[in-house]
Specification:
Radius of gyration: 13 Å
Distance between the termini: 40 Å
Strand content: over 45%
């Protein structure tokens, strides 16, 4: 069993930045790919960024060039740096690794 805890969400103005963190209860990120997902009201949960066990990354088209996923194995933590945020980025953001999900952190982009 693995517990994932997200943090770093909040309210930010358009154009602002946030860094989300996903901390695992044990060392696992180097063994499996990790994904950041988001779920906006009335929409399906979608994958926005992922990092594989070997460190390769992928991004959903709308966040390319604005979001960056990274991993610090020694901290058992995966990050999502989000820059130039837009109102349409408003959602609950979740991290997932293998079968486990975090509880989510709310990101609201509004003036």
């Amino acid at each position: 069993q693995v517990q994932l805890v997200e943090s770093g969400g909040g309210l930010v103005q358009p154009g602002g930045s946030l860094r989300l963190s996903c901390a695992a209860s044990r060392s696992i990120f180097s063994r499996y790919a990790t994904g950041w997902y988001r779920e906006a009201p009335g929409k399906q949960r979608e994958l926005v960024a992922s990092i594989s066990s070997d460190g390769s990354t992928m991004y959903e088209d709308s966040v390319k060039g604005r979001f960056a996923i990274s991993r610090v194995n020694a901290e058992n933590t995966v990050y999502l740096q989000m820059n130039n945020l837009r109102p349409e980025d408003t959602a609950v953001y979740y991290c997932r690794i293998f079968l486990w999900w975090g509880q989510g952190t709310q990101v609201t982009v509004s003036s």
